[in-house]
Design a protein that fits this description.
Helix 1 packs parallel to helix 3 and helix 6 packs parallel to helix 8. By secondary structure, the chain is an alpha/beta fold. The chain is built from 13 helices and ten strands. The mean pLDDT is about 95. The protein has one domain: Aldolase class I (TIM Barrel). The radius of gyration is 19 Å and the shape is globular. Helix 6 links the parallel strand 4 and strand 5. It has a five-stranded parallel beta sheet with strand order 2-3-4-5-6, covered by helices on one side.
Amino acid sequence: MKHLVDKLEENHELTRDEWVRLISSYGDEDLREYAASRAREASTAIFGKNIYFRGIIEYTNFCRNDCYYCGLRLSAPDTTRYRLTPEQIMDCADEGYRLGYRTIVLQGGETAYFEAKNGKRMVDIVRAIKTKYSDVAITLSMGEMKHEVYQALFDAGADRYLLRHETASADHYKKLHPEKMSFDNRMACLQKLRDIGFQAGPGMMIGSPGQGAEELAEDMLFISRFEPHMVGMGPFQPHHATPFHDQPSGSVELTLFIVSLVRLLRPKLLLPATTALDCDVNDGRQRAILAGANVIMPNLSPEGLKKNYLLYDNKPGITQSAEENLVKLRSLVEEIGYTMVVGRGDHPDRVKEGV
C-alpha cells in the first residue's frame, strides 16, 4: 500500500477503490509509520515546526439537535445547560489575548437564541472582539444556519467557520442523526460558507458507529472535491447519555492514519490535533502532530462551566484554568521539538490573498 501513499505525495488523486484498499490496510504498523513520516515532511515543508494555537470559548451547551453521538443533544437528561453573556465571552477573549492567542474560536450548540434576527447576538459579539483586537482571527462553530446569518457573521468580521459534516455518506449520516436532520442541508451549509468567503472547515468522527473503510473513502473524496481550508478529525468517543453510550471508542491508530492521509491529500490544510485523541491515550495530540497535524485548541471557557460542555465522556483538561491548559499543551508541543506560534495561522492561500 505504500505506493498509494507515494501517489498521494505526488499530488495524484486516488479512486474510491484505492481509498478503500488503503484505509483498510491501517492495521499495518509499518504502513502507518510510513504515512506519518511522509505527512510530517509535507507539513514541515510548508509550516516548519510551527503549531498554531487557537483559544476556544464554549459559549453555550444549549442545542436544538438530538444527534445520537453527542452529549449536548436536546434530550440528554443530566446536562446542566448554560449560556455565556457577551461580557463573559469578552472576558474569555481578553484572557486569550493576554495569553498570546491571535485566533479565538467561538463554539456552541446549535440554537435559535444566537440565530435570531440574522444572528444579531453573535454578530455583536464578533464585532466587539474584532473592534478591540483587530489582529485577531475569529473562528465560529455554530452549526447549520441560514445563508443570511452566515453572511452577517462574515460581514461582522468572522474569518473561519468549522462545520463538521461527520460523514460524507448519506446513508451513514442517517445512522448518526434523527430523521429531521438533513444530510443535504449539512452539505449545502458547507458550500454556503465557502461561497461567502469563510475559511471553511468540515470534519468527521473516525470510528463512529456504522463507519467502515467505504464511508471513510467517501470522506476523502469529499475533501478532494470541496477543497477545505481546515479539516477537524477525532476518534468517536461515547457519551453515557446518548444512544451510542455502549459503543466502542474509535481507534486512535486509524484516526492518526487518516490525519496523515488528509495531510498528504491537501498539504496546505490546517489540521487540528483534537482533544478527543487524548481520551484513551496520554500522547494522542503529540502523535497527531507527528502524523501531520499543525493546530491545537486549548480551552478558554470559564473554569466552573467546562464540565458542562461534554460532547463525550472523559474529556481532558476540564479541571484546568486557561493558563494551566496552555502551559501543559505548550510543554507537550515543545517536548517533541515543535513550537507554539503566536499569530493568526491562516491557510497559506488566504495569507497570499490578504484575507
